[in-house]
Amino acid sequence: MNTKNKNAIAFSFGKAARYYDNFSIFQKQIGKKLFKRFSSNVGNIVLDAGCGTGFFSKQWKLIGKNVIALDLSESMLHVAQEGKSASYYVQADIESIPLKNKSVDLCFSNLVIQWCKNIFIPLNQMYRVTKCGGLVVFTTLADGSLKELKQCWERVNQSSHFNSFLTFDEIKIACKIWSNSLEQKSCCFLYPSFQVLLRSIKGTGATYLYNEKKRGLMTKKYLERLINNYPNVNNMFPLTYKVIFGALYRE
User: Fold this and answer.
1) Which of 53, 121, 202, 206 could bond 79 through an S-S bridge, CB–CB 3.0 to 4.6 Å?
2) Which residue ranges does the record assign to the Methyltransferase type domain (predicted)?
3) 181 in Cβ contact with 247 (< 8 Å)
4) Are 244 and 140 in contact (CB under 8 A)?
5) How many CB atoms lie within 10 A of CB 5?
6) Rounded Cα–Cα distance for residues 34 and 25 (Å)
7) pLDDT digits 0-9 by tens, 17-65
8) What is the pLDDT of residue 123?
9) Which domain holds residue 43?
10) 105 in a domain, yes or no?
């Protein structure tokens, strides 16, 4: 991923930092599942790679772990630090982690690596800094995520506003050099209005997901067209996520 794209992502998440936790229900639900799976029988040092506001850094800290909170966004790290979420705070790119080889017992990364153009790079970085016998555990989004919103936009103006996600098979190929376990789950969230659905994405800093070059089109009339073309389930607006739960076993 080039520097321009990284800066755009950091800026997008930075804008959302102060209210991120109010909107990140989906991220928390997925992260809690990952945390529950791997919170027992791990060593003392945990790297929260892409920590955001430090929500999960704090969960690791509460069970007695020595936590390193790492994020690309300075604003997100500032919120994490204000909440005393971790032992150490590092502003850095997950594609170039400034830690020594084999220096942590577990790397935890919740819904972060989908922002990287080549997910092998962040996975390799996390594997590198993990001690032998340790774990790299992560979640990421796969092809089919946000399909309702993508299809809706395509019906309205015949163009896609979204970056594509990797398929499950492509993610398996990226992980194949390591001993690993991968599982895909489909999650569908229902929102009471289209506006609430959009806020759930924008409020988590994920505006970078769609092409904002056409912002001017988001007029009242255009919004009505989107709503009329969006699938409706008992007056609720569904949004599907394809989530990969992964673990790399450090050898």
Assistant:
1) 53
2) 47-138
3) yes
4) yes
5) 14
6) 14
7) 666 767 778 889 999 999 999 999 789 999 999 999 999 999 999 999 9
8) 98
9) 3-145+163-188+240-249
10) yes
